Amino acid sequence: MGATTMAEAGVSVAGASHYYFERARETMPRERLAALQLKRLRATTKNAYENVPFHRARLDAAFIEPNDVRSLDDIRLLPFTVKTDLRDNYPFGLFARPRSSLARLHASSGTTGKPTVVGYTENDLRTWADLMARSFACAGARPGDLVHNAYGYGLFTGGLGAHYGAERLGATVVPMSGGSTERQIALITDFGARVLCSTPSYALAIAELAERQGVDLRQSALEVGLFGAEPWSEAMRQEIEVRLGLTAIDIYGLSEIMGPGVACECEHRSGLHGWEDHFLFEVIDPESNAPVPEGHAGELVITTLTKEALPMLRYRTRDITRVTRAPCDCGRTHLRILRITGRTDDMLIIRGVNVYPSQVEAVLIGTAHIAPHYQLVVERRGSLDHMTVEVEVRHGVPPDAFEAIARDVAHHIKSLIGITTDVVVKKPDEIPRSQGKAVRVRDLRPKE
Ligand code: DLL
């Protein structure tokens, strides 16, 4: 894959100066993009069919051969792949290449049973670094920038994914990983990082400790943050921007498909460009499995188009979003995935009302005296689910104000989301802080 198109960088689109890592690819006319996708979809289906017995058996059972894929709409002939398919074929059963020819493995933390293992060939790693470099550039990072990488290194794809992408861009990386927050603050300040990579919840934890230490990160060199790996709200974005003094950019990805860099916002921040030369995106109704019309919400389904080691056919991400193919002012032609509002498996049904944690977050962050840290505790009371919202006051709020704050928060949640909740107001620092993905829900309901 020809990656380095630095010579084409800094070109002008509609009067504005835009920087692309791979301009020709990123601004490719949609018809050409579709033709490239079809060619690659056929190759991917062939790779899966010929090299993964699991996929071959399922395609055979559906009487489909790779040659039957003649148009992009024919993707609907292919069966879906779900997370349990990876677990059932643990550890390497879905790999299309012998383990000995792979360059790297990553794995999910696997809170429920076996971890999910993913593998990469050298080419897969090269593509991943290119797409992460493309995402960095799209977000506003530039060659020569200092990138402070606070995504966790190790089996999680965040750390190494961002690391090699930043290097590929031509930036200087500080491979910090998560944790040691005090040290993070010192190095961000001393080295003069312009770009910060972390989960949005950890970015806030960094901001908070800095404020307590009397370090004003708004005066630091930080200008751009690439935040992802967990759902976050527009309200959270504003909070982070105000407290860190940077532009907060949303970046999306998942290990089963690659890792970070599947999609990323540009400076216009009106959806995340999904890199369609390497992935085919669909949005379906998670109940009926039928495609939803463009712009409607549904479950994001992704097919990899170039992955050698782990081709994925119609992977059910469980992430809920909408997409638009309308042109973007940045000149990129790749579709935009709107902010992920939650996961099908995160959805809570409280007395018949469907609620995502991110909706509660949006209400909390707009409320006076409340710090942007919270947990939702879900219990079964009789035959009904009940939610307790645990919030934390900002420093300096006196305990005799807690009761009124609790009433205020409960009232806002009731009027904006329509559910009745108990609200427990805690003192500063009583809600656990994350160094990676925040734990937003404590589900105490009996397991079915
Ligand atoms: O979280 C990869 C990643 C690392 C993405 C760093 C962005 C930055 P997994 O651990 O496999 O991979 O988790 C993937 O996290 O299906 C979503 O539910 C969620 N997620 C990731 N990015 C976002 C985002 C990485 N920007 C799962 N907004 C996905 C909302 C996100 N949810």
Mean pLDDT: 94
Listed once per kind, the bound small molecules are: 5'-O-[hydroxy(phenylacetyl)phosphoryl]adenosine
Biggest β-sheet: strands ordered side by side in the sheet: 6-5-7-8-9-10-11-16-15
Count of runs of 4 or more consecutive helical residues = 11
User: How many β-strands, per DSSP?
Assistant: 23
Which class of secondary structure composition applies to the elements? alpha/beta
Sequence-ordered SSE layout with sheet pairings:
Layout (H helix, E strand, L loop, with lengths): L11 E2 L2 E2 L5 H4 L3 H22 L1 H9 L21 H6 L15 E4 L9 E4 L1 H18 L6 E4 L7 H13 L2 E4 L5 H11 L3 E4 L1 H14 L10 E5 L5 H11 L2 E8 L4 E7 L6 E3 L4 E6 L13 E7 L10 E7 L1 E2 L11 E2 L4 E2 L4 E3 L2 E3 L1 H9 L4 E12 L2 E10 L8 H16 L4 E5 L14 E3 L5
Helix pairs in contact: 2-3, 5-6, 7-8, 8-9, 9-10, 10-11
The structure holds 5'-O-[hydroxy(phenylacetyl)phosphoryl]adenosine (DLL).
Provide keyphrases for this structure:
disordered N terminus, four-stranded antiparallel beta sheet, alpha/beta, nine-stranded mixed beta sheet, binds 5'-O-[hydroxy(phenylacetyl)phosphoryl]adenosine, single chain, 448 residues
